[in-house]
């Protein structure tokens, strides 16, 4: 069974590894970029994604790349704590939460793909033109290349060419008016050194967490005029001075926000965009995965994790269904409703809703958070998001594995 994966990002590479683990061997990954480089800044891999990476035999390799936060804490823009909860192993999961540099993580996945599937399985410099009758056509420097496959998986991101083929009138991603600035800084740790913090509200926010010894990932966010267009790019470098100025008075007893922002090696600007959920990801022998299927706002730190879950779920159903159409139907039934709910939840701020409520109810701060938001309401918001995203501790710890043990006739 010949399988083509379009895109060598986190979703595409994890799909290749998942399919290989499930017994498939005729796999090729086609990437638009001429070369893969460790771009980006920090991301979080939640315990449900780390479970899947561990079952792929990557747990220790990924752990060595970054840090494992033990706490997530939300604050208002005055530095007062709204909510705090344990994370990863500290929260009772069997797997940690990991904070890693996105580019380093992608390069590690690429290295493992080449080790297990072959040095030439990832083919760069191939831009998808279209798919017709089971044949993918790619533009290359040497001319157009056609590749026939039994299954074509579009893991080609928020600007997916495969998605655009079947949604030609969709238009550019939808901007919600917020601009993000991201970077990494070499700086001392804050609080206990293992805490991920989010401070602010729906209009302005700051996020920081360690991604390695002495390395802090920083994210600044502000509503207002900014860059938004069809070519949104995580790697647009901007002058940090205006961003630092936006947070000039955000100095807390436990963290100096402008100082940390000013220490960043570079600042990358990106509009907060997503797309409306669509009714189907599958057309014939093609389907979508990751940001090509369900681009979402980064509230809840879930984008990469959901792509990993997509990859593992798709491989599981391809290995256990009797036909490719049945496998794709099962994959969509498992993943599309869940990710649709997350896209819509993230538009409502996801778990970060606690910061929005604190700002609405006590814009000048509070004596105690429970005077503003009852503890039951705080708990409901946090628990509800974990349930929607599929990582309630008990549910995740007890869920059956996505590593297939019984194989079907789909395999050659």
Automatic annotation (TrEMBL):
**Where in this chain does the record put each FAD-binding domain?**
3-165, 278-343
Q: Which Gene3D superfamilies match?
A: 3.30.9.30, FAD/NAD(P)-binding domain
UniProtKB keywords: Monooxygenase, Oxidoreductase
Pfam families (UniProt xref): FAD_binding_3 (PF01494)
Q: Which PANTHER family match?
A: 5-METHYLPHENAZINE-1-CARBOXYLATE 1-MONOOXYGENASE, MONOOXYGENASE
What is the protein name given in its UniProt record?
Flavin-dependent oxidoreductase
């Amino acid at each position: 069974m010949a399988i083509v994966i379009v895109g060598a990002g986190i979703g595409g590479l994890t799909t290749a590894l998942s399919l290989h683990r499930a017994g498939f061997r005729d796999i090729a990954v086609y990437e638009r970029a001429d070369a893969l480089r460790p771009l980006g800044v920090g991301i979080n891999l939640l315990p449900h994604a780390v479970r899947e990476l561990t079952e792929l035999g990557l747990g220790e390799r990924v752990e060595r790349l970054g840090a494992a936060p033990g706490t997530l804490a939300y604050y208002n823009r005055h530095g007062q704590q709204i909510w705090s909860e344990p994370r990863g192993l500290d929260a009772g999961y069997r797997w940690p939460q990991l904070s890693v540099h996105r580019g380093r993580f992608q390069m590690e996945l690429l290295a493992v793909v080449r080790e297990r599937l072959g040095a030439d399985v990832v083919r760069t410099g191939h831009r998808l033109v279209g798919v017709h009758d089971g044949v993918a056509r790619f533009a290359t420097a040497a001319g157009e290349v056609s590749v026939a496959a039994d299954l074509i998986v579009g893991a080609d991101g928020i600007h997916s060419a495969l998605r655009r083929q079947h949604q030609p009138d969709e238009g550019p991603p939808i901007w919600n008016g917020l601009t993000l600035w991201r970077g990494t800084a070499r700086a001392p740790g804050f609080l206990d050194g293992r805490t991920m913090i989010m401070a602010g509200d729906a209009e302005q926010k700051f996020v920081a967490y360690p991604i390695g010894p002495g390395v802090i990932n920083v994210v600044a966010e502000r509503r207002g005029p900014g860059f938004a267009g069809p070519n949104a790019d995580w790697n647009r470098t901007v002058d940090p001075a205006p961003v630092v100025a936006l947070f000039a008075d955000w100095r807390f007893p436990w963290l100096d926000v402008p100082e940390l922002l000013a220490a960043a090696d570079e600042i990358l600007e990106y509009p907060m965009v997503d797309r409306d959920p669509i009714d189907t990801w599958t057309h014939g022998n093609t389907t979508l995965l990751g940001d090509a299927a369900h681009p979402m706002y980064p509230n809840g730190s879930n984008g990469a994790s959901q792509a990993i879950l997509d990859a593992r779920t798709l491989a599981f159903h391809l290995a256990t269904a009797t036909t490719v159409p049945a496998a794709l139907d099962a994959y969509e039934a498992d993943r599309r409703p869940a990710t649709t709910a997350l896209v819509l939840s993230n538009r409502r701020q996801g778990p970060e809703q606690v910061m929005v409520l604190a700002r609405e109810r006590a814009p000048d701060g509070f004596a105690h958070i429970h005077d503003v938001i009852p503890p039951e309401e705080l708990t409901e918001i946090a628990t509800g998001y974990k349930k929607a995203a599929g990582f309630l501790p008990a549910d995740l710890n007890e869920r059956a594995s996505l590593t297939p043990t019984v194989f079907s006739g789909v395999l050659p």
